[in-house]
Specification:
Layout: E1 2-3, E2 7-13, H1 16-26, H2 32-40, H3 44-55, H4 59-75, H5 80-91, H6 100-103, E3 104-109, E4 123-127, E5 130-131, H7 152-157, E6 183-186, E7 194-207, E8 212-216, E9 221-225, E10 230-233, E11 238-241, E12 247-260
Antiparallel strand pairs: 1-5, 2-3, 2-4, 6-7, 7-12, 8-11, 8-12, 9-10, 9-12
């Protein structure tokens, strides 16, 4: 995910101790036993049991827990996390997913920042605009903040219930010393695709090793080939580059993003 505007999201579980502390602060009697069990078992199995139990809350018990959560949030609305809970409650009233920000890392990417959303890891878009590059996926399972069906047992069986340290969430771009200034390669930790951003390029020579997609971030982008064919796209548009293209030239006075392999 590459942020085009400030982009707020959730990505991966918080540290076990942080989840315990946040739920203990709520002091919700009906969750006391679940929280105590997690506090006594701060490991993958303990979090998996807690995650499944929370998502399985239904009926009046779920309603009482959500009401208690929002009462706490209203009493502490100057806190950024509580303010987020109240904002989400307006969009998803009564949803058990309102507890998600207490279990998952919340962060706001600034324009030009990026993060990787790993498979088997809970994540959610909250607000903002970003450029998302997806690998092939055959399964999307929901964990709340949605009116759609949640298959909790299947979700839990496909989820790695391990913390994702907050300071590892952002992908720091790498500059290749062999290339000119203005080229940033993001270290994607899987072989499915690569992602790079180019700034102020005049006839930058690029060569395909696979099919590619170029996206004009903030200015027009012109792509030209030696056979005489060329195309210019505007800000917010994208162009598909076939795998058999070979070398082509890209020109832009702004930024463009490249998804390729």
């Amino acid at each position: 995910m590459f942020a085009l505007t400030p982009y707020q999201a959730m990505n991966g579980f918080r540290e076990y101790s942080e989840i315990v502390a946040l739920f203990n602060a709520l002091a919700i009697d009906e969750l006391a036993e679940l929280v105590a069990a997690l506090e006594a078992n701060q490991n993958e199995a303990g979090l998996e049991a807690f995650f499944e139990a929370m998502l399985s809350l239904t009926g009046e018990r779920k309603d009482r827990c959500v009401d208690a959560l929002l009462t706490y949030a209203e009493a502490n609305k100057d806190d950024a996390l509580c303010a987020l809970l109240l904002e989400l409650a307006e969009q998803y009233p009564g949803d058990i997913g309102l507890f998600s920000p207490l279990m998952l890392n919340t962060l706001t990417l600034q324009p030009g920042e990026a993060m990787f959303l790993d498979a088997c890891t809970p994540h959610a878009y909250i607000k903002g605009t970003g450029l998302e590059i997806m690998a092939n996926s055959d399964n999307v399972l929901r964990a709340g903040l949605t009116p759609k069906y949640m298959d909790v047992p299947e979700l839990v069986s496909c989820t790695r219930c391990v913390p994702m340290p907050f300071d590892t969430l952002l992908l720091a771009p790498m500059a290749n010393e062999a290339e000119e200034a203005g080229v940033a390669h993001y270290p994607i930790p899987v072989p499915d695709f690569k992602f790079s951003v180019y700034t102020n390029m005049a006839e930058k020579a690029l060569t395909t090793q696979s099919a590619e997609i170029l996206f004009a971030v903030d200015a027009p982008l012109t792509v030209a080939h030696a056979d005489g064919e060329s195309v210019t796209i505007e800000k917010g548009q994208s162009v598909f580059i076939p795998a058999n293209t070979g070398e082509y030239l890209a020109t832009s006075t702004g930024q463009f993003a490249r998804a390729y392999n």
